[in-house]
Amino acid sequence: MAENRAPKSGLAAEAQKKLLSKYDNQLASEVMEWVRRTTGGDFSASGEIDNVHEVLKDGVVLCKLMNVIKPGAIPEKKISSSKMAFKCMENIGFFLQEAKDMGVLAEETFQTVDLWEKQNILAVVICLQAVARKASKYGIEGIGPKESEGNRRNFSEEVLKAGQNVIGLQYGSNKGASQSGMNFGNTRHM
Length: 190
Fold this sequence. Notes:
Blueprint: H1 11-22, H2 25-39, H3 49-56, H4 60-69, H5 85-102, H6 112-116, H7 121-135, H8 157-164
GO molecular function, one term: actin filament binding
InterPro entries: Calponin-like (IPR050606), Calponin_repeat (IPR000557), CH_dom (IPR001715), CH_dom_sf (IPR036872), SM22_calponin (IPR003096)
Organism: Galendromus occidentalis
């Protein structure tokens, strides 16, 4: 667990410092409040890194959240309340798999150790924000911007062929203009 790790040094310390500088307590508080409200949980919705880690590290709250969004997504018998590391990380893994199945992009998810070992809590917050966006598709009130639904257009063959005859402005049409008579910078004096 994170308490048993040696302090980072060198490049690892610089990378960790950069990650911590990007962490947004306000965003984390908003996400944790959404998780608390959605699950009906009785925990602090503070956005402090230590609180986010403490509330979510065993994965039980994450599994409950996923079961509220998608009932039965993670069977209750699979969710372990044990505090053993591999069981907690298994719970987190169940949540991550269901998040990917919901359509959360791989870039918006986190690795299990990011949460379990408190390596990158920002990634956890970003993942939960993405899950909250996707939750509106399942009838759960989400947070953040509404997901776009696409605007597919179907053109007839006639319209597509007519479009091939149009010369776009990116081809450099300048109506016969030339550079004759233009003086670009200083001229050479002899």
